[in-house]
Specification:
With 256 residues, this protein is an alpha/beta fold. The chain has helices at 36-49, 67-81, 108-120, 155-165, 185-213, 243-254; strands spanning 2-7, 11-18, 21-29, 59-64, 86-87, 97-98, 125-131, 134-140, 145-153, 218-224, 238-239. It is built from six helices and eleven strands.
């Protein structure tokens, strides 16, 4: 079994693969001060609570956008699983042609998502939208050329910015509002977050299709914590919440 960990700015998203099957998913708040013992004990406990024997883990794969966490997670893997982890970082095999001017700048979670899209939708152009702390939109050709992407503030970050930088606008639950025009401050903020993101996504994804794929068939993939919020809008051709975890598993195989 393979333990995979996607270390994001807000959460660690983890999973366990039994060959091709993702048999467990879990999340843990990201805190830079977490020690290797805290992380290792948490992982072993969550596995046991879900009837997975920690001793059955044969490999650990990690991607991280929080550099301060890598050391602790690496040590946790060695101490609590007896395994030196694979880390998705510059220099490893990805199967992609990365067209960034400086490939070192691309977040490893974005690379993992592109690897997974190439695996799940072979021979297709792909646009990948990942709703995390930041919302990212990445484009990949049917020949596995990673072209680049767009980064914008995520839903929660936008909401917290309104709360922090205005005197009378509160934090709200992020959800679909009952109608386009809010009839209260809370509904108005929800409408702005929800419909504003829909407008941005539709415009940007349409422009990527036109400018980079000449309107050729392209699969639009949604992933990340808030992707389900937009399921009713039929924006995405596929919704794959575990996309980055699949990409980590595939990157591990490429580098075995």
């Amino acid at each position: 079994m393979i333990l995979v960990l996607d270390i994001g700015n807000s959460q660690i998203f983890g999973g366990v693969f039994d060959d091709e099957r993702l048999c467990l998913q879990f999340r843990h708040a990201t805190r830079a001060e977490n020690t290797s013992d805290e992380i290792g004990l948490f992982c072993r406990q969550v596995l046991r609570e879900n009837d997975v024997d920690p001793g059955s883990i044969t490999a650990v794969a990690i991607c991280s956008v929080v550099p301060d966490m890598v050391h602790s997670v690496r040590n946790a893997s060695v101490k609590y699983f007896g395994l030196r982890p694979f880390i998705l970082e510059p220099g490893v095999r990805t199967g992609l042609n990365i067209r960034y001017r400086n490939p070192l700048e691309v977040g490893s979670d974005r690379i993992a998502g592109a690897i997974a899209a190439a695996k799940l939708f072979p021979g297709k152009n792909a646009i990948i939208v990942d709703f995390g702390t930041a919302t990212t939109i990445d484009a990949m050709t049917d020949e596995r050329d990673y072209l680049g992407g767009v980064i914008l503030p995520g839903l929660r970050l936008s909401m917290e910015s309104l709360d922090a930088r205005t005197a009378r606008l509160p934090k709200v639950e992020i959800r679909k509002p009952p109608e386009l025009l809010g009839r209260s401050t809370v509904e108005s903020i929800q409408a702005g977050l929800y419909h504003g993101n829909i407008a941005i996504l539709r415009h940007l994804c349409a422009e990527v299709r036109t400018q980079y794929f000449a309107d050729r068939p392209t699969v639009l993939v949604g992933t990340g914590g808030f992707a389900r919020l937009f399921e009713e809008e039929n924006i995405f051709d596929a919704h794959v919440p575990e996309l980055v975890l699949i990409g980590l598993r595939e990157a591990l195989r490429l580098n075995s």
